[in-house]
Amino acid sequence: MDGFGIWITNLLVILEGGSSFLMESGLSPHGRKCKCVVHLLRHGETAWNSKKKLQGQTDIPLNENGLTQAQAIARLLVQHSIACKYAAVFSSDLARASNTAKVIVDIANTKHKVHADARLRERAMGSHVEGKTWASLTHEQKHALRTGTPEGGESSQQMLERMVQAVAEIAHKHAAVTDNDDISPPHILVVSHGGAMGTLLEYANMNSSSSSSSSKTVPHIRNCGVYSLTVAFDGDSVDTVEWTYDGIVVELDNTSTKGGERVGG
């Protein structure tokens, strides 16, 4: 099982455990008066990615290929007239994400400041796990990652809660009234990590009231892949939110940096 598989397993455990933490806290889908489209982009490749090591919150920089990937996805976002739509750019404060965001801002020439937010980090897995491959972990370490809290780390639900809080607050800040179908909601870019993004998108997919969302399958989150999430609010309240997974925006072809791409709706 790779890192992304861990997050999906953990997410199913969370959802099977009863009502979600969002419903318990009073967040529920009561309306779509205000919307914001969030494009979630995974950082470029690192040396640990290439060796299939679990990174967690260890601050590993982009490798040469990761930098090239960031440049390639930036050019695609410009080519497909996507980058010009962004009203703001946010990122995890870890270097592999924040540097990916800075490359995109520079190439797209959007003049946006990259707003760093630690809540957008990957799951903390603890020093006994980070830097190791899944195959090298003990049975106890694998069990803790799947169902509990690894030593020195955080649970999958803790990661999901902070991701939901961060993305909801960011989206609410930039949301606009879109009662008219001719009015497109604002778009923002959020650069984060594979496990954190995959868990959030799966959660949004499973909890959406939209039939178009539930018909989509959340893919494996590729380095520098971009995936769309619509966040809707009931008026001015951040406490009423509905999530809709919209699908793939654009991906590098098999994480290649040599010209291919996969573009979604």
Automatic annotation (TrEMBL):
* One Gene Ontology term of the molecular function aspect: fructose-2,6-bisphosphate 2-phosphatase activity
A Pfam short name: His_Phos_1
| Signal sequence range | 1-20
Q: Name one GO biological process term.
A: negative regulation of glycolytic process
Task: Write out the catalytic residues in the record.
Answer: 43 (tele-phosphohistidine intermediate), 122 (proton donor/acceptor)
What SUPFAM superfamilies does its record include? Phosphoglycerate mutase-like (SSF53254)
Q: Which UniProt keywords apply?
A: Hydrolase, Signal
Q: What GO CC annotations are associated with the protein?
A: cytosol
Annotated residues for binding of substrate: 42-49, 96
Can you say what this protein is called? Answer: Phosphoglycerate mutase (2,3-diphosphoglycerate-dependent)
